[in-house]
Amino acid sequence: RDLSHDEENGQLPGRKHRGEGGSDGVHKRWRHPQEDTAVQIKHYQDEIAHLRNELAALRSSESSTLLRGENKQRDDEIESLHKFWHRAGWLILLLFFQSSSSVILQHFDGLIRTHPVVVYFLTMLVGAGGNAGSQSTVLIVRKVATGEIRGDRTALAHVAEQAWIGVRLAIVLFLASFLRTFAFRVQWFESIAICVSMMSIVFTSCLVGSIVPLVFLRVGVDPAHAGAAIQVLMDISGVTITCVVCSVILHGHETLVHGKHAGVAGVT
User: Fold this and answer.
1) In a designed cystine with 234, which of 64, 99, 129, 142 is the match (CB 3.0 to 4.6 A)?
2) What are phi and psi of 105, to 5 degrees?
3) In this predicted model, what pLDDT tens digit does every residue of 90-128 receive, in sequence order?
4) What is the pLDDT of residues 143-154, one digit of tens each?
5) Helix 122-146 vs helix 151-183: crossing angle, to nearest 10
């Protein structure tokens, strides 16, 4: 009876007096304070998640803008190769540098007259140097374009890698050159001079081919021009290395032979 009396007066915690919750007379459930706290926490969590999503969207937008700016700058640099007079100027400049090869050959005229076989294999030697140097140049330019080379430390690491590759390529092409000279029945001392020249040229071209595009990038020149530059540099370097190496080996062989003949003549 007391409970029914309290219920009618709306004093029980679990129930409310009919008609107190509104005009429809629906009962409203009593809510514990912890339930209100949980609702507020859920609301705050939703707000935090929403702010995080907006922040991620802003960061993505900024990254896209920076990437478009870098790509545009890179495209502007590469566009220099499509300009007619810019390319013509580079080719004329390289032409004058390449003409120095004839001066070097004139300086070693005595070697060429005594051992004309050097001239026969000169195209092979210079061509191999240009090809090996171009391979290294293309690889370095590609790494620069893709962003694999960042800073001096990574640049030195890639140069060292190309130098080690140059050592192995030099050994392989030394053997290939020996087989070719053997097939053409070249005398053994001339064959050694040509093979050593090949080994020196290939190693030098791989090393220089990896350095030239990085130097161009440092001084503000489009690294794509390194492809033509390395061809000219290796033409000049190839002729110089061939003449110097062959001169040292062949003249040393002649001195040794003359010494033996002189010793035999003295004995007789």
Assistant:
1) 129
2) -65, -35
3) 778 777 777 777 888 888 888 888 888 888 899 899 999
4) 888 888 877 788
5) 160
Give CA–CA dist 61/32, Å, rounded.
Answer: 45
**Residue whose entry in the numeric block shows the structure tokens 């240009």:** 130
- What is the Cα–Cα distance from 73 to 259, expressed in whole angstroms? 66
The amino acid occupying position 211 is I
> For the residues of 26-65, what is the DSSP string, one character each?
PPPPP--HHHHHHHHHHHHHHHHHHHHHHHHHHHHHHHHH
Residues 205 and 139 sit within 8 Å (Cβ to Cβ): no
Find where tokens 């161009």 sit. 216
For the beta carbon of residue 211, count every other beta carbon within 10 angstroms: 19
Residue with tokens 């993505």: 60
Residues 229, 137: Cα–Cα separation, whole Å: 10
The CA angle 201-206-209, to the nearest 5 degrees, is: 110
Polymer length of the chain: 268
Do 107 and 180 touch, CB atoms closer than 8 A? no
Radius of gyration of the chain (CA): 40
Q: Whole-angstrom Cα distance, residue 51 to residue 184?
A: 78
